[in-house]
Amino acid sequence: MTRTYLLLLMALCTTFQSFAQWEPKISPILTTWGEKLDTNSVLPEYPRPQMVRKNWINLNGTWDFALTDSASEVPGHFHDRILVPFCVESTLSGVTRKVTRKDAMWYRKHLRLEKPANGQRILLHFGGVDWHASLWINGQKIGEHAGGYDPFYFDVTEALNKKDVRITLRVWDPTDEGLQSRGKQLLDPRGIWYTPVSGIWQTVWLEKVPASHIDHIRVVPDLDRQSVLVSVGLTNRDKHHRLRISVWDRDSCLVIQEGQEDSVLRLNIPDPRLWSPDHPHLYDLKVQLLEKKDTVDEVASYFGMRKVEIRKDTNGINRIFLNNEAVFNFGPLDQGWWPDGLYTAPADDALKYDIEVTRALGFNTVRKHTKVEPARWYYWCDKLGLLVWQDMPRCAGGLDPHAVKDVERPTSQEEIFRREWKAIINAFHHFPSIIAWVPFNEGWGQFKTREIMDWTKKLDSTRLVDGPSGWTDFGSGEMLDLHYYPGPGIAPLEENRAVVLGEFGGLKYAVSGHLWQDANNWGYQDTESLTDLNDAYEELIHRLALFVSKGLAAAIYTQTSDVEVEVNGLMTYDRKIVKLDTSRASRLAEMLYNQSEVFRFILPSGEQDDSILWKYSLDPPGPGWHAEDYIDTSWQAGVAGFGHRGRYRLFGNGSPWDTTGIWLRRDFEIDRLPEGKLYLNILSYNAVSTVYVNGRKLGVFSPTKNIHEMIDFNTDLQQLLRIGRNDIAVHSYSKEPPVDRNSKLKQQFIDVGIIEVVNGDP
Predict the structure, then answer these.
(1) Is the CATH number of domain 309-596 3.20.20.80?
(2) Staple partner for 679: which of 405, 556, 619, 710, CB 3.0–4.6 Å?
(3) CA torsion sign, 526 to 527 to 533 to 537?
(4) CATH number of 20-209
């Protein structure tokens, strides 16, 4: 076979491939948007709403594709067609193949594009590529990028030496075989771990810009001074350039200001309209780069006037304050997965729909869980009014949740983490809806906790830092974050941090006909029907309201939608069924925001008063130890609570308890019979406890991961309590308590109180 014949055959193959058709693969379920997808108009919206230019080209659509061995060079044949920006594993990609670290993904796109004149530049943008991308233009290597969640671009101008342009992109993704951030992707998906996402998964686009142009803007509202600070990053700075920045409210120009190109401009906003979930007002912003009187470059943007902080309310409890008002943050854990596009929503309306449903259900917050979304998702949160807690996607390895020693990470992994987390914060700093950064979740990739929390706050001092969300806490960050399923619960209040419930709920209901698979689905707590689900949800929220009154600053319910075999969503995975009654759920949410229930402490626990004294014995007492007339003068006296909870930060000084069992007694006086609803306030960890009131057994409470329960004993306590002297007795034991690896103390804890819930001031 001659060389000429081989070259001719290769040319014919390339020609034939360019006419190959994209075909979607079979999927168990599709969204409505996936079913109606127009392959000639895939996610056509301008992808960067925070900095808009008019001169751009969307490159979404069909590309040539090949999957090769990771060691291979650019393939001569591209046998497949892939629909960009859907990842290789997704249904809508048309490829739907598993990718491992042994593979390389190759993308190719042909287009006609002339090299611009007058020094203008052509930028090729990628919204998101998982994970390591290498770019060639017309066979010339342009550059590389590592990071699956931050947007990036290349200046490709110098490689445009002819009208016919060939874009070639190589992507390598080791998923759970590497050290990089990967969120919930797993090569062997199961339970809370989902199908991997490899390759391009966000919009690809070209943009023509001047030689000197605006690269990025940073907008920081200053509510207290009724102004906004704007800084602009430029390429090819020139001393003759100036900036002109103007603020608009609809069609009215409020202020125009000019300054040097390297200056930070402060623009005063008269009588600012504040951004909040109830009133998500946005101002338009125009940024112009001037040379003498001519506009060299111009971008359109927007911003919201808002500030967020942790501070104490009138009761001295740390709350999340938005615009100088305490706002209870309540919302779903949002995984951001789609049955047809996986990481990629099949339409911009699909992104918007999730946020609309979230708001319709009464939520004012969403926690974007171990994933980063395209910029347009945050834009819709800004427009529709939804507070966002933004996670850093999960890295490999992590901190043993039962260990207490903070760990080092391999140098390469720490470098990867820091580079991408910084890039994410810088890329999404613009959006007013984002009010909190969440560097770590449940010990996943957790390392140098205090250092990373402090570093995150330095990167962005205008937002809260949650630290860390669930599991092993080191006293850092601005929120003490408990995870408790199904919950709800609350950790002990702290002097300097707000206490939040970063995950709870997870009520399961599998809707037939809308499932990823028909059997072996799971959730945290079963319900039998949609009615049962709604009833269970209402009960959960009524219990949550008690903790809000007690000091809980936020609660995140698991989760927005079903994801693959995890069916504890508020919606089905295909988004065709909203499982909760929206009006009922919305009323429950309003109860949390506006509830006026107040606690009266009939019997304070150590959390309310760390000088409370109990009599206690570490040795088994004689018969009748819980009787009202039992003589306990030989028992020791100690302040509540009793025991140790490892690195969990407890209130007060407490008293030691490191034996198998402990017996507690104390008297308390009440001057009137309670009229409100009565709860047993039991703070327990790894302790089976029996509680007696005035000599009668109230109940037995088993160990729980939570250390705080409020249990409805209204009827029993109303009958047992009396005016004057009352007596409470508690026996707690732990057969094989775990040991704190750092202090070697046994991890067990008990404290008890009685609470009356009333309306109005006590």
Answers:
(1) yes
(2) 710
(3) negative
(4) 2.60.120.260
Average pLDDT, the chain: 90
**Parallel, antiparallel, or unpaired: how do β-strands 121-126 and 152-155 relate?**
antiparallel
The full length of the chain comes to: 762
Beta strands in 412-459 (DSSP E): 434-438
Give the Cα-Cα-Cα angle 319, 320, 326 (nearest 5 degrees): 75
> What is the arithmetic mean of pLDDT over 23-44?
90
Asked if residue 365 has pLDDT above 50, the reply is yes
> Pairing state of beta strands 329-334 and 552-558?
parallel
**What angle is formed at CA 374 by the lines to CA 509 and CA 179, rounded to 5 degrees?**
85
Where are the CATH 2.60.40.10 domain residues in the chain?
213-303
Measured between alpha carbons, how far is residue 141 from residues 156, 201, 696 in Å?
Answer: 10, 22, 81
Q: Which phi and psi angles does 91 have, rounded to 5°?
A: -60, -45
Report pLDDT digits (tens) over 391-432.
999 987 655 444 445 666 667 889 999 999 999 999 999 999
Most confident range (mean pLDDT) of 316-325, 402-411, 609-618 is 316-325
The pLDDT of residue 647 is 46
Distance from the Cα of residue 90 to its chain's centroid: 23
| Alpha carbon distance 235, 621 (integer Å) | 79
Confidence bin at 745 (pLDDT 50/70/90): low
- Compute the distance between CA of residue 675 and CA of residue 685 in angstroms, rounded to an integer: 30
HSE-CB for 62 with a 13 A CA cutoff:
18
Evaluate if residue 742 carries a pLDDT over 60: no
CA distance 317 to 500: 12
Give yes or no for residue 680 having a pLDDT over 50.
yes
Phi and psi (nearest 5°) for 453? -60, -45
The ranges of the chain annotated as CATH 2.60.120.260 are: 20-209, 600-759
User: Confidence band (pLDDT; 50, 70, 90) for 759?
Assistant: low
471-491 pLDDT, tens digit per residue, is: 888 889 999 999 988 988 888
Asked if residue 348 lies in contact with residue 42, where contact means CB atoms within 8 angstroms, the answer is: no
Please say whether the dihedral angle defined by the alpha carbons of residues 626, 630, 635 and 639, taken in this order, is positive or negative. positive
Q: With bands split at pLDDT 50, 70 and 90, how would you rate the model's confidence at 744?
A: low
User: b vs e for 293-302, b when ≥16 Cβ sit within 10 Å of the residue's Cβ?
Assistant: eeebbbbbbb
3-state secondary structure of 567: coil
Residue 722 has pLDDT above 70, yes or no: yes
| Closest of 271, 186, 216, 174 to residue 51, by C-alpha | 216
Place of tokens 């109830």: 278
> Does residue 542 carry a pLDDT above 70?
yes
* Residue of 729, 728, 734 lying closest to 661 (CA atoms): 734
Mean pLDDT of the 688-699 span? 95
| Bridge partners (DSSP) listed for residue 133 | 145, 171
C-alpha–C-alpha distance, residues 266 and 270, integer Å: 13
The CA distance from 278 to 78, in Å, is 51
What CATH class is the domain 600-759?
mainly beta
- Tell me which architecture the domain covering 213-303 has in CATH: Sandwich (2.60)
**CB–CB of 604/619 below 8 Å?**
no
User: Where along the chain do the CATH 3.20.20.80 domains lie?
Assistant: 309-596
The DSSP call for residue 275 is B
Distance, C-alpha 637 to centroid of its chain: 45
Q: Which two tokens stand for residue 366?
A: 């969403």
**∠744-745-747 over CA atoms, to 5°?**
120
Strand 724-733 and strand 688-693: the pairing is antiparallel
Q: What is the pLDDT of residue 706?
A: 54
